[in-house]
Structures are given as C-alpha cells and as structure tokens.
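pls design
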C-alpha cells in the first residue's frame, strides 16, 4: 500500500500547540514505535526547524531522526531511508529541494520508499513535491508554476487561505493551462492518498477546507469533504 499525506500548512512548525495533524500522520503507521525521519532540505536544513521537529516528536510514541544533505549521517542514504516507517518533508524552497534531491538521487530513493509502503508526508514544499506540478514562491516575489516528481497526478496548492495571492494565482495558472488541474488546501488541512487516490481529508482547524479546482470552459472550485480531528 502506497501512502502520501500532503499538508497545506500546520503541523509542528506552524501550529506547535496543535498536534492533531502530526499525530494523525503517526497513527497511520502500523508500527508501535514508528521510525519517522525528517527531511529539512527545502529550508536549507534550518537548525530551528530541525529543533522544532525533535521538540515535538520526542514527546510522541515514535523514534525520530533527520537526514541532512549538508551533513549526511552516512554515504548510503538509500539504506538509511528505507529502514524508516515515515518520511516527513519540511517546507521551504521547492525548486532547491527538487534540485538537491535529484543531485543526490533521493528522488529515486523516495519513489522506492513509497513503493515499499513507507509513508511519505510533508508540508507546503514538502507536499507540492509529490505531485506533477504546483504553485511555488521559490523563484522570488511571484507565485509561479513548478514541475515536480509526479508520484501523484495533477497539481497541488498549499496555503490556499493563508496567503492572499494563492487562490487567484492558482486559478489563473490552471485557467491558462500553465499547470494541471488539481487540489488546493487551506492551512491546517492534510490530504491522505492511498495508491494515488484520496482516502480522506482531515483538518486541525474546524473551518479549514480543501478544494478540487478544474477547468471546463472556466475555472471551477468545488469544496471537498473534510473531517475535523479534534
């Protein structure tokens, strides 16, 4: 069973006092004390981001670790990652994340992990990366399209309600065929995919939503059912 959990925003880095999304991720593992590995590549391995990961996950029933590409723990990154139960990708610069992963061969390792049943999770850039394409601010001031790994079909937009320009920019790019149709999620929402199909959508904030955005002569936005975890 192949699983991806894509967070639009929230989790330990955005909602340190609200553990619902991160606890949901842990609960999807069948292991009693799952090994969860954090990939902070998109943030340039920011020390405070890594610290925030450990501050939260060391309080949970799991075995946390992280993988730095700037200070790798081993030369054999494939073996290191394939022994984990959950791989959690942090937010930041999607373009740099993809470039570094491809240079290190992590794109292939992560596909193997996914095929092997290791849960892939991530927030913002760490969620966009799994789709065919998405909306990113990696290039500077403007939101622009970016091609990603394509584990999941279509496009993805995080922070749909959290940043003023996200919704109009995403809909414009779909309307002009610059990116594929797809899904958009508010901060505090996670979409759980099993074998490339949506299993369920959950949130840590009662009013946070998820939307399917399509193009049929014009751009259409449809709300999707979301389950509150509280």
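designed seq:
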């Amino acid at each position: 069973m192949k699983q991806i959990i894509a967070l639009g925003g929230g989790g330990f880095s955005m909602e340190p006092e609200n553990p619902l999304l991160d606890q949901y991720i842990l609960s999807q593992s069948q292991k009693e004390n799952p090994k969860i590995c954090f990939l902070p590549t998109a943030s340039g391995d920011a020390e405070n981001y890594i610290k925030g990961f450990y501050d939260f996950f060391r309080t949970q029933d799991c075995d946390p670790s992280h993988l730095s590409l700037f200070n790798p723990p081993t030369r054999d990154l494939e073996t290191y990652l394939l022994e984990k139960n959950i791989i959690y990708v942090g937010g930041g610069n999607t373009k740099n994340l993809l470039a570094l992963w491809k240079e290190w061969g992590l794109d292939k390792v992560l596909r193997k992990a996914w095929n092997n049943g290791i849960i892939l999770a991530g927030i913002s850039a760490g969620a966009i990366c799994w789709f065919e394409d998405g909306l990113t601010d990696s290039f500077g001031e403007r939101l622009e399209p970016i091609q990603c790994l394509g584990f999941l079909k279509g496009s993805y937009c995080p922070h749909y309600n959290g940043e003023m320009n996200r919704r109009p920019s995403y809909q414009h790019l779909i309307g002009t065929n610059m990116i594929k149709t797809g899904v958009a999620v508010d901060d505090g929402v996670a979409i759980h995919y099993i074998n490339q199909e949506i299993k369920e959508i959950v949130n840590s904030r009662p009013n946070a939503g998820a939307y399917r955005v399509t193009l049929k002569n014009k751009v259409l936005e449809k709300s999707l059912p979301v389950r509150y975890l509280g």
